[in-house]
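Narrative of accomplishments. A recurring question from our advisory board has been how the design workflow behaves on a single, concrete structure rather than in aggregate. To address it, we present the structure tokens for one chain from the evaluation set, followed by the sequence designed for it. No filtering or post-editing was applied between the two.
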């Protein structure tokens, strides 16, 4: 624990530590006294003969800085194998506190962050209005009495009673010293900033309700003024943790919050006139919270490191969008941060909710398209100058990353970034045909690329197609690279048990031959060609089944074709599957019949699952399989030739097994998240 001027509360707290039941493992109490002007240090030292206590002293104030000092000392003296339990100098533990923490940590070895129960220890009975009206969690750090034993949102793990395995700190994580207690007027959120950041890094939280402390609540904290002051601090902390640009802003504040403030002011006046004290208090609390948020916005304090805005002209959820989210994760590894800004498309809300669990923000951003759309181009350019530039600046990005999905689809926002004075990088996600740049667009394109610091493509083919059009506009200093898409090889992996279970769940015989594809049911992926290939092979292999995992505009026509052919028992349509790693191991061959690909993520996902792969010899897929021993290429427009190659694989299970093993090895060596992540971070090095 950290303590500053804690002599009023520490005696009851340290007496509580003296009553603790000893756990099986050795334990030590580390107190960091920081900047006290009273006799706190001497008081703590007096307990050293009654407790396994070590006292550290620093003249510098700030709770998080003190905790970081304690963490450093504990790592040096106890290493990273211990459980680090954090509490406050006004939180008295229950006698079995350490026993419960020891039991919880042992029962959940897969978790590294834990929250415990924080109960009230009232200096005097609270007034009747307080528990009824005040948010006691935000005000006093009390946990909900009905919070169950189990996974918990990391924002509900609070500093008066939390535990973190030492391995987390050994990996380099520390408290943010710019927030949390540091004098009277501080922004709240010191420990939740850490727990949320840890959740982003893959450390989810578990709640242990039996590990209990009593949080001492002083008499002056039962007053209206104190509660409203905490609301103001909460507003300041909320601003710090929000992502800039998520909503349209005015003077650095989301416009909807300004509207809400006006509504609360009206509500306050109405409460005054109606004489309702309860309603009046609620309005005062909301206004205090909003004033704290606005105050922090005015100061412009967003100590979140370098910001990268990743945007695209996106029309549906696919491999490019998944890569954009992965880019945010990579940036966070490098100490920067990122957010996504996209126009609306089908499925974006569900995807955004998924990403919100990692605190990855997806904001709506659809600037006028004067490159992508010829009609109204002059009007759209004017709108971009007058409106979209202000919207882009609201994100407060240090660098704009434009994911280029097709021909000139991305050029408008690239120009906009340059217009706003923001440097940019471009990632190319498709191999698209050459186009003629109009005379009207050429000067705008020169302006757009003048701010581009780097370009990378997901395949050599994609890069060559992009450079064929845009090389004359690139500066000589622009960094150029090929960085493939990645696959989580811990998530996508061979699994014989899962293979049997998935086949059973989908109604596929265990001994059947199963071919299939994970792909959108759209023209680009040519699912009808895959169905034709299957129908051709069915004449030779009566026990052959086809699995199509995905959804799209062609789904209805594909199902009708299957019905008319009388093949419904042999063709499985799964629709969109989020956990696609559970489906892929069921396949004997993964076959992608695309007319073009930027890269082909489904191909490497199948390879990671140990499934041999087949793909048409088109850019993107050819980049993966041209030199691969885990897959083969087939002609894009010759179904008979493709069927002959696939038949050769179906006839040779030994060859398929060997190819699957080599495919897995290639996926790990070339496309794992770790391997690709290093390439991405090397690309960004010096750019931000």
């Amino acid at each position: 624990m950290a303590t500053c001027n804690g002599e009023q509360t520490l005696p009851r707290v340290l007496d509580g530590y003296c009553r603790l039941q000893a756990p099986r493992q050795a334990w030590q109490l580390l107190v960091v006294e920081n900047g006290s002007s009273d006799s706190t240090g001497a008081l703590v030292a007096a307990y050293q003969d009654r407790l396994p206590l070590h006292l550290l002293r620093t003249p510098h104030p700030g709770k998080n800085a003190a905790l970081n000092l304690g963490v450093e000392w504990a790592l040096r003296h106890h290493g990273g194998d211990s459980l680090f339990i954090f509490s406050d100098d006004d939180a008295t533990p229950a006698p079995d506190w350490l026993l419960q923490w020891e039991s919880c940590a042992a029962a959940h070895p897969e978790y590294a962050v834990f929250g415990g129960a924080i109960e009230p220890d009232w200096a005097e009975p609270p007034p009747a209005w307080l528990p009824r009206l005040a948010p006691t969690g935000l005000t006093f750090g009390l946990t909900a009495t009905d919070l169950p034993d189990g996974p918990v949102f990391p924002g509900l793990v609070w500093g008066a009673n939390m535990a973190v395995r030492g391995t987390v700190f050994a990996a380099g994580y520390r408290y943010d010293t710019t927030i949390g207690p540091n004098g009277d007027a501080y922004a709240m959120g010191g420990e939740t900033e850490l727990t949320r950041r840890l959740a982003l890094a893959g450390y989810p939280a578990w709640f242990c309700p039996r590990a209990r402390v009593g949080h001492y609540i002083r008499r002056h904290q039962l007053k209206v003024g104190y509660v409203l002051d905490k609301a103001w601090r909460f507003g300041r902390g909320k601003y710090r943790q929000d992502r800039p640009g998520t909503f349209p802003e005015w003077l650095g504040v989301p416009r909807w919050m300004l509207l809400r403030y006006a509504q609360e002011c009206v509500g306050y006046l109405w409460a005054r006139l109606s004489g309702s004290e309860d309603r009046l208090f609620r309005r005062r609390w909301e206004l205090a919270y909003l004033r704290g948020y606005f105050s922090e916005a005015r100061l412009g304090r967003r100590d979140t490191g370098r910001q990268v805005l990743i945007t695209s002209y996106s029309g549906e959820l696919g491999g490019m969008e998944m890569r954009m989210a992965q880019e945010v994760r990579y940036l966070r590894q490098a100490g920067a941060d990122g957010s996504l800004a996209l126009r609306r498309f089908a499925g974006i809300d569900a995807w955004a909710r998924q990403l919100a669990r990692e605190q990855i923000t997806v904001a709506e951003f659809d600037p006028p398209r004067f490159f992508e759309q010829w009609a109204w181009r002059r009007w759209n350019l004017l709108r971009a100058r007058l409106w979209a530039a202000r919207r882009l600046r609201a994100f407060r990005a240090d660098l704009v990353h434009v994911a280029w999905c097709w021909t000139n689809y991305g050029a408008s926002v690239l120009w906009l970034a340059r217009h706003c004075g923001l440097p940019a990088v471009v990632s190319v996600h498709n191999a698209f045909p050459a186009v003629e740049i109009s005379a009207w667009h050429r000067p705008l394109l020169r302006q757009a690329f003048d701010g581009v610091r780097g370009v990378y493509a997901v395949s050599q083919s994609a890069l060559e197609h992009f450079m064929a059009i845009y090389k004359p506009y690139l500066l000589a200093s622009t960094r150029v690279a090929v960085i493939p898409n990645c696959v989580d090889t811990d998530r996508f992996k061979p699994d014989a048990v899962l293979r049997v279970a998935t086949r059973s769940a989908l109604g596929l015989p265990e001994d059947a031959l199963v071919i299939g594809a994970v792909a959108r049911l759209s023209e680009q992926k040519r699912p009808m060609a895959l169905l034709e290939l299957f129908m051709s092979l069915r004449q030779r292999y009566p026990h052959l089944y086809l699995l199509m995992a995905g959804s799209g505009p062609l789904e209805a026509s594909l199902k009708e074709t299957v019905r008319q052919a009388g093949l419904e028992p042999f063709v499985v349509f799964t629709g969109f599957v989020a956990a696609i790693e559970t489906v892929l191991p069921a396949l004997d061959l993964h076959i992608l019949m695309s007319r073009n690909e930027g890269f082909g993520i489904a191909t490497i996902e199948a390879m990671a699952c140990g499934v041999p792969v087949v793909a048409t010899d088109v850019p993107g897929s050819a980049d993966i399989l041209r030199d691969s021993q885990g897959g083969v290429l087939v002609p894009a427009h010759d179904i008979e030739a493709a069927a002959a190659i696939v038949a050769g694989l179906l006839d040779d299970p030994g060859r398929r097994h060997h190819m699957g093993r080599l495919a897995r090895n290639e996926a790990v060596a070339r496309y794992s998240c770790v391997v690709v992540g290093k390439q991405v971070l090397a690309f960004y090095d010096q750019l931000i």
